[in-house]
Specification:
By secondary structure, the chain is mostly helical. It has 2 domains: 18-51, no CATH class; 52-124, no CATH class. Helix content is 29%, strand content 0%. It has helices spanning 21-33, 42-47, 99-118. The longest helix is centred in the C-terminal third of the chain and has 20 residues, at 99-118. The model is unreliable at 123-127 (pLDDT under 50).
Length: 134
């Protein structure tokens, strides 16, 4: 079980019960109240392949725009200065909450930024502040 917190903690389980027992009861009760059907996913139950509610992927890494959306520096191909550092660059479901994976990718991308500033692909001019365009 993954727990993200700074305090030490402990879980005690009794034989015949697991950490999901209460969740199953809640799910069944909610299904009764909403006239629904409690269910899980076939992938998780039969194939042990985790499912997630976290939408990931869509912007694959590639050497150029034909191979992917972003380069290894997380900068979008053909859009200088546009860096993509969210769940869309995660190539596959990690099976757990992806927040730490996304954070690590963002730190990696930002660690590459000083190098990218020294040798940019193609510098784009910054827009003027809105109040300066009077």
């Amino acid at each position: 079980m993954l727990v993200m917190q700074t305090e030490d903690n402990r879980i005690r389980l009794r034989l015949g019960r697991g950490p999901t027992t209460l969740w199953r009861r809640v799910t069944r009760r909610f299904a009764e109240m909403t006239n629904g059907i409690p269910s899980g996913t076939i992938n998780e139950a039969l194939l042990n392949i985790p499912m997630t509610a976290h939408i990931l992927g869509g912007c694959p890494f590639g050497r150029d725009a034909r191979e992917g959306v972003v380069g290894l520096d997380c900068q979008a191909h053909d859009y200088p200065g546009l860096y993509i550092v969210d769940g869309s660059i995660v190539p596959a479901n990690p099976g757990v909450n992806p927040s730490l994976t996304i954070t690590a990718l963002a730190e990696y991308a930002m660690s590459r930024l000083p190098h990218a500033v020294e040798q940019p692909r193609a510098a784009m001019p910054l827009a003027e502040p809105a109040d300066a365009r009077v």
